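Lay summary. Proteins are chains of building blocks that fold into shapes, and those shapes determine what they do. In this project we predict the shape from the chain. Here is one chain we studied, written as its sequence of building blocks.
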Amino acid sequence: MAPQPDHWIADAETAERARRQRSFLRMAVLRILAMAGAVLLGLCAPHAPAHAQAGPQVTQLHGHLELDYSVEVRVDGLSDWAAGNDPRRLVPFIDGRALPGNSPEAIDVARGRLLFHLRVNEASRAVWTDLLGAPEGLRRPVTFSVGPVDGSPFDTVYGDGRRVMLTVISPVYGGIALLLVVVTLAVFVRLARTTSIIRKPAEGRLGPYDLGRFQMAVWFFLIYLSYTAIWLITDATDTIHPSLLALLGISAGTALSEAVIDAGGGAPTQDPRETALLEERQQRVRESGTRGMWHDAGEGDSSDPPARQQAARHRVMQIDRQLHALQNPARDTDSQGLMHDLLSDAQGYRFDRFQIFAFTLILGVIFLSDVYNNLSMPELSPTLLGLMGLSSGTYIGFKLPNRT
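And here is the predicted shape, written in a compact code that computers can read:
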């Protein structure tokens, strides 16, 4: 193929450059026209007010954020929002959760102010339990806003970056209650160590600790402490369930049955060894020529040799020591320590005692855990109460043959 002439090539390149210049000019003109149109449309479009775009916003919170207290909330843009909505449907939102049943007690739409009284009701109980349950201190930081009860909360300045403090336990009432509880426990511990408040009766000494009385004391203090804590946090006073009365009845019945069995229900049978020693003592007293509690002033033989009288007196002293040991066995009347006294009797350690002791401890831990997390007294099932009754009945049943 023959090569193209040079002037043909030069004409083709010139035409290409001209075409590219025309295309660039057309694109530049179109872009300029588009930008001009956008500017004109922006100038002619109506401007929406700023608050209509932002919506209502919580800007101020006055008062003490605590259960059963009142707080005043300032909401910017409330009047515009109330033009198409009912402000009586507004409720507080704490940590993003609505508190139903806490509608505003006072509404000032013009000034954007709402007054709420924070309270617990059936509708909001679950939310308050989550907010106040398992407390780690007297107060905790939370987010706060208001909004429709069935909608979303308004924008708020009290968000994650600026939380407010929710009082879980009032420092004043909490301090007073803590002082009373500590004093009560201290007095009880003092009495338990120095008196027979939870011990078996013993003349002239401190008897051993009594398992039935110990169990009754444990359940009393568990309910006492739990009732005080629930009242401090939720201000509720009607928190005692019928099942707790049954539990107290089981522990009291165990202690009462044990006391009746220990008393013997009547005069105890005299040990034959004690009878023989008493008869021998009476005879030795006559032989010694001294006055004993079993012979009158005319008895006594002054003609006995002095050696025989001395031997009789010595034997009387021995008999007195033996009678004292029989009538006051150390194992039954002396305390050997709390755990030893609770888990053993005259025959040694007993499983029936260990069973009731173990059940009392583990159920006590479960009881306190439920109160701490749910802020309510646990309602014990009939099965669990039956288990406690069976354990106590077994313990009482094993005491009957021992006493006989």
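What the prediction tells us: Residues 48-53, 291-302 have pLDDT under 50 and may be disordered.
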